[in-house]
Structure formats: structure tokens, C-alpha cells
Design brief:
The complex is a heterodimer of chains A (about 110) and B (about 120).
Chain A: E1 4-5, E2 10-14, E3 19-25, E4 32-38, E5 45-51, E6 56-59, E7 62-67, E8 72-77, E9 86-94, E10 97-100, E11 104-109
Parallel strand pairs in A: 2-11
Antiparallel strand pairs in A: 1-3, 3-8, 4-5, 4-9, 6-7, 7-8, 9-10, 9-11
Chain B: E1 4-7, E2 10-13, E3 19-25, E4 31-37, E5 43-51, E6 54-57, E7 64-66, E8 76-78, E9 87-94, E10 107-108, E11 112-116
Parallel strand pairs in B: 2-11
Antiparallel strand pairs in B: 1-3, 3-8, 4-5, 4-9, 5-6, 7-8, 9-10, 9-11
The chains are: A mainly beta (about 110), B mainly beta (about 120).
Chain lengths: ~110, ~120
């Protein structure tokens, strides 16, 4: 049973526009959430995170929103750039372990 | 230059052979992890270790073994008992340990692609 779900396998946006990647979770014990970016045949790189006591965290072009009542988080990238094209993984933490979603392939078209 | 190294990048083995994947970190992190990634799948936790000489099974530990004799090193052995060993294996580390200070932010190595035929 998937505890962390990324329901959109892929997303395509135009350069300069906003990219919104979504993630849903089922386990109420998750208390920390992270987004990772991954290129093919490489390890994921950490992007941004948010604690369950917050509802928003911003870092440059990246903003993560957390809606605990809906068990939903999203990653906003504004403005999107071609170099943002990659697979984005949502991860949720509990008891010092992370559970990952299956990822969303973001393609930013020039 | 701190980081996590995994070697080799590509590894080929015959079915029935055990193989050990290397993972070394010089970030002075307490905790280390092993994941596997299959096409179209997320990362699944195989084993993790929060401190030297201690490790726990993750979600898919069957057919794998690990050791944690040094803080810097966390090798993973894929045994012949693993039914589908061909995958992309990722090692990660984080500051979290048993000291009470924890961090969920895990830093990943470049990965090893294992192909078993």
C-alpha cells in the first residue's frame, strides 16, 4: 500500500511559467516532508523540505506548501527553466526513515 | 570535498553469485541507508544504520545483507537469494543518529547499476 503518492507521472510546462508538482500521503505519523530532484543514472539531490508544523517554506524559485488536513503537499517552481527538467520525488519522514513517492517527470520546454 | 561515493558505477554479475556494493561517506554523518530504484518506481529502503555496529531492515531486506564496522562505510551485499537483483542501487547518509539530534535530509551517492544475467 503506497503511503506516499505522486499521481502525475509526468508534467510538461513552458519556460518561464509555473510548475506545480503534487504529492499525497496517507500516514498521519509523517512529520517531515522533502522534495528531491533526480537526473537519470544519478543520485537524487535534495531541493527543499518542510516540517509538519509549518504550511509553507520558500527557497528562491522553489516553494513547498503543506496542507495537513488534506494530507497533501505541493512543490511550486517559478519561473520554470529548462534545467529544471528532471524527475521530482516527494518523500515523507517518520521515525527517522523516509518513504518516497514514485516520482513525477517534469519537462520544461524552451 | 565532502560527499558520498559509490563504486563501481556499473556492475555485472552472473546469476547465483553474491556481489558487494561499496558506499563511503566523508560527511561525518551518523546514519546511512541503502535504497533500490526500479524503472517507474520510487526509492525503496533496503537497510539502514543509525550508528556503527547497528543496522535495521528496511521494507525490502530479503536477499540483502549489510555491515557497519566503520562510520564512513556501509557496504551492501546482494546475495543469490535476492530474486530480482537487477536494479539501480543508491546509498545515502544523514546527520541523524542516536545523539538526539536528527535530520531527515539525506544526501545520496551517484548510484550503482547492477545487472545480473
Amino acid at each position: 500500500d503506497q503511503q506516499v503518492k505522486q499521481n502525475s507521472p509526468s508534467l510538461s510546462v513552458q519556460e518561464g511559467r509555473i510548475s506545480i508538482l503534487n504529492c499525497d500521503y496517507t500516514n498521519s505519523m509523517f512529520d517531515y516532508f522533502l522534495w528531491y530532484k533526480k537526473y537519470p543514472a544519478e543520485g537524487p539531490t535534495f531541493l527543499i523540505s518542510i516540517s509538519s508544523i509549518k504550511d509553507k517554506n520558500e527557497d528562491g524559485r522553489f516553494t513547498v506548501f503543506l496542507n495537513k488536513s488534506a494530507k497533501h503537499l505541493s512543490l511550486h517552481i517559478v519561473p520554470s527553466q529548462p534545467g529544471d527538467s528532471a524527475v521530482y520525488f516527494c518523500a515523507a519522514g517518520s521515525n527517522y526513515k523516509l518513504t518516497f513517492g514514485k516520482g513525477t517527470l517534469l519537462t520544461v520546454n524552451p | 570535498d565532502g560527499g558520498i561515493t559509490q563504486s563501481p558505477k556499473y556492475l555485472f554479475r552472473k546469476e547465483g553469485q553474491n556481489v558487494t556494493l561499496s558506499c563511503e561517506q566523508n560527511l561525518n554523518h551518523d546514519a546511512m541507508y541503502w535504497y533500490r530504484q526500479d524503472p517507474g518506481q520510487g526509492l525503496r529502503l533496503i537497510y539502514y544504520s543509525q550508528i556503527v555496529n547497528d543496522f535495521q531492515k528496511g521494507d525490502i531486506a530479503e536477499g540483502y545483507s549489510v555491515s557497519r564496522e566503520k562510520k564512513e562505510s556501509f557496504p551492501l551485499t546482494v546475495t543469490s537469494a535476492q530474486k530480482n537483483p537487477t536494479a539501480f542501487y543508491l546509498c545515502a547518509s544523514s546527520k541523524q543518529g542516536t545523539s538526539g539530534t536528527s535530520s531527515y535530509e539525506q544526501y545520496f551517492g551517484p548510484g550503482t547499476r547492477l545487472t545480473v544475467t
